[in-house]
Amino acid sequence: MEQPTCPRAAARENARDATGATDAPGATSDAYTADCHARLAFEVLANRWDSVVVYTLGAGGPMRPRALIAGIGGISAKVLNDALRRLEYNGLVERRTYAEAPPRVDYALTEAGTALLVPMRAMGAWAKRHTDDVLAAQERFESPGGRAGNHRYRHRA
To answer: With contact defined as beta carbons under 8 Å apart, do 155 and 138 qualify?
Structure first.
Protein backbone atom coordinates (compact mmCIF):
# COMPACT_ATOMS: atom_id res chain seq x y z
CA MET A 1 0.00 0.00 0.00
CA GLU A 2 1.34 3.42 -0.93
CA GLN A 3 2.21 5.68 1.99
CA PRO A 4 0.49 9.07 2.02
CA THR A 5 2.83 11.95 1.35
CA CYS A 6 3.27 14.84 3.74
CA PRO A 7 4.15 18.22 2.19
CA ARG A 8 5.67 19.56 5.39
CA ALA A 9 7.65 16.38 5.98
CA ALA A 10 8.99 16.60 2.42
CA ALA A 11 9.97 20.21 3.05
CA ARG A 12 11.85 19.12 6.19
CA GLU A 13 13.64 16.45 4.18
CA ASN A 14 14.63 19.08 1.59
CA ALA A 15 15.85 21.41 4.35
CA ARG A 16 18.46 18.95 5.60
CA ASP A 17 21.93 20.38 5.58
CA ALA A 18 25.11 18.54 4.57
CA THR A 19 25.32 16.85 7.98
CA GLY A 20 21.82 15.43 7.64
CA ALA A 21 20.40 17.60 10.42
CA THR A 22 16.99 19.20 10.09
CA ASP A 23 15.69 22.50 11.33
CA ALA A 24 13.06 20.69 13.39
CA PRO A 25 14.41 18.51 16.20
CA GLY A 26 12.65 15.16 16.31
CA ALA A 27 11.08 15.77 12.90
CA THR A 28 9.67 12.68 11.26
CA SER A 29 8.24 11.88 7.86
CA ASP A 30 5.86 9.31 9.36
CA ALA A 31 2.67 9.15 7.30
CA TYR A 32 0.42 9.80 10.30
CA THR A 33 1.97 12.86 11.91
CA ALA A 34 -0.14 15.92 12.63
CA ASP A 35 0.60 17.69 9.37
CA CYS A 36 -0.13 14.83 6.97
CA HIS A 37 -2.87 14.03 4.49
CA ALA A 38 -3.79 10.82 6.33
CA ARG A 39 -4.28 12.68 9.60
CA LEU A 40 -6.42 15.28 7.83
CA ALA A 41 -8.59 12.53 6.39
CA PHE A 42 -9.31 11.18 9.87
CA GLU A 43 -9.94 14.65 11.29
CA VAL A 44 -12.46 15.50 8.56
CA LEU A 45 -14.90 12.94 9.95
CA ALA A 46 -13.87 13.08 13.60
CA ASN A 47 -17.22 14.58 14.59
CA ARG A 48 -19.78 11.99 15.57
CA TRP A 49 -22.48 13.09 13.12
CA ASP A 50 -20.45 14.04 10.05
CA SER A 51 -19.93 10.49 8.81
CA VAL A 52 -23.62 9.70 9.41
CA VAL A 53 -24.64 12.68 7.28
CA VAL A 54 -22.22 11.70 4.50
CA TYR A 55 -23.46 8.11 4.56
CA THR A 56 -27.12 9.19 4.51
CA LEU A 57 -26.56 11.53 1.56
CA GLY A 58 -24.67 8.73 -0.21
CA ALA A 59 -27.56 6.35 0.26
CA GLY A 60 -30.37 8.77 -0.54
CA GLY A 61 -28.90 11.33 -2.90
CA PRO A 62 -29.50 15.07 -2.52
CA MET A 63 -31.75 15.81 0.43
CA ARG A 64 -33.40 18.67 2.19
CA PRO A 65 -32.57 19.17 5.88
CA ARG A 66 -35.91 17.79 7.13
CA ALA A 67 -35.44 14.64 5.06
CA LEU A 68 -31.95 14.24 6.51
CA ILE A 69 -33.30 14.60 10.05
CA ALA A 70 -35.96 11.97 9.34
CA GLY A 71 -33.48 9.63 7.63
CA ILE A 72 -30.86 9.89 10.35
CA GLY A 73 -33.05 9.98 13.45
CA GLY A 74 -31.82 11.25 16.80
CA ILE A 75 -30.19 14.39 15.39
CA SER A 76 -31.44 17.89 16.13
CA ALA A 77 -31.78 20.58 13.48
CA LYS A 78 -28.94 22.56 15.11
CA VAL A 79 -26.56 19.59 15.21
CA LEU A 80 -27.42 18.73 11.60
CA ASN A 81 -26.83 22.32 10.51
CA ASP A 82 -23.44 22.34 12.27
CA ALA A 83 -22.49 19.05 10.58
CA LEU A 84 -23.57 20.30 7.16
CA ARG A 85 -21.52 23.48 7.60
CA ARG A 86 -18.42 21.47 8.59
CA LEU A 87 -18.90 19.12 5.65
CA GLU A 88 -19.39 22.04 3.26
CA TYR A 89 -16.29 23.73 4.70
CA ASN A 90 -14.29 20.54 4.08
CA GLY A 91 -15.60 20.21 0.52
CA LEU A 92 -17.57 17.00 1.08
CA VAL A 93 -21.06 18.48 0.72
CA GLU A 94 -22.46 21.23 -1.44
CA ARG A 95 -25.41 23.40 -0.49
CA ARG A 96 -27.78 24.07 -3.36
CA THR A 97 -30.36 26.83 -3.17
CA TYR A 98 -33.31 27.18 -5.50
CA ALA A 99 -35.00 30.45 -6.43
CA GLU A 100 -38.45 29.33 -5.40
CA ALA A 101 -41.13 30.56 -3.05
CA PRO A 102 -40.85 29.34 -0.38
CA PRO A 103 -37.04 29.09 -0.63
CA ARG A 104 -35.71 25.56 -1.00
CA VAL A 105 -32.27 24.25 -0.06
CA ASP A 106 -30.85 20.78 -0.42
CA TYR A 107 -27.49 19.18 0.17
CA ALA A 108 -25.57 16.77 -2.02
CA LEU A 109 -22.22 15.03 -1.83
CA THR A 110 -19.38 16.47 -3.86
CA GLU A 111 -16.99 14.23 -5.78
CA ALA A 112 -14.75 14.09 -2.69
CA GLY A 113 -17.72 13.21 -0.48
CA THR A 114 -18.84 10.45 -2.84
CA ALA A 115 -15.30 9.03 -2.96
CA LEU A 116 -15.33 8.88 0.84
CA LEU A 117 -18.18 6.33 0.78
CA VAL A 118 -15.79 3.51 -0.20
CA PRO A 119 -13.57 3.73 2.90
CA MET A 120 -16.62 4.44 5.05
CA ARG A 121 -18.22 1.20 3.87
CA ALA A 122 -14.96 -0.60 4.69
CA MET A 123 -15.09 0.89 8.20
CA GLY A 124 -18.70 -0.26 8.48
CA ALA A 125 -17.66 -3.79 7.53
CA TRP A 126 -14.89 -3.63 10.11
CA ALA A 127 -17.38 -2.46 12.75
CA LYS A 128 -19.83 -5.23 11.90
CA ARG A 129 -17.07 -7.82 12.19
CA HIS A 130 -15.41 -6.48 15.37
CA THR A 131 -18.16 -4.79 17.41
CA ASP A 132 -18.53 -7.79 19.73
CA ASP A 133 -14.74 -7.84 20.27
CA VAL A 134 -14.66 -4.14 21.10
CA LEU A 135 -17.64 -4.36 23.46
CA ALA A 136 -16.13 -7.41 25.20
CA ALA A 137 -12.84 -5.55 25.68
CA GLN A 138 -14.70 -2.57 27.14
CA GLU A 139 -16.59 -4.87 29.50
CA ARG A 140 -13.33 -6.52 30.64
CA PHE A 141 -11.79 -3.09 31.20
CA GLU A 142 -14.71 -1.97 33.37
CA SER A 143 -15.12 -5.23 35.29
CA PRO A 144 -13.76 -5.81 38.82
CA GLY A 145 -10.05 -6.41 38.46
CA GLY A 146 -10.04 -4.45 35.21
CA ARG A 147 -9.25 -0.78 35.09
CA ALA A 148 -12.72 0.05 36.44
CA GLY A 149 -12.07 3.55 37.76
CA ASN A 150 -10.89 4.86 34.42
CA HIS A 151 -14.01 5.99 32.55
CA ARG A 152 -12.10 8.23 30.15
CA TYR A 153 -12.29 5.64 27.38
CA ARG A 154 -15.91 4.59 27.81
CA HIS A 155 -17.99 4.66 24.63
CA ARG A 156 -20.72 7.27 24.74
CA ALA A 157 -23.72 6.26 22.67
So the answer is: yes
Phi, psi angle pair for 105, to nearest 5°:
-135, 140
- Are the beta carbons of 122 and 130 closer than 8 angstroms? no
User: For residue 154, which amino acid is it?
Assistant: R
Bridge partner list, 30: none
CA distance 157 to 24: 41
| pLDDT tens profile 72-89 | 999 999 999 999 999 999
- pTM for the whole structure: 0.69
Of 109, 40, 10, 39, nearest to 68 (Cα)? 109
CA atoms of 39 and 36, how far apart (whole Å): 5
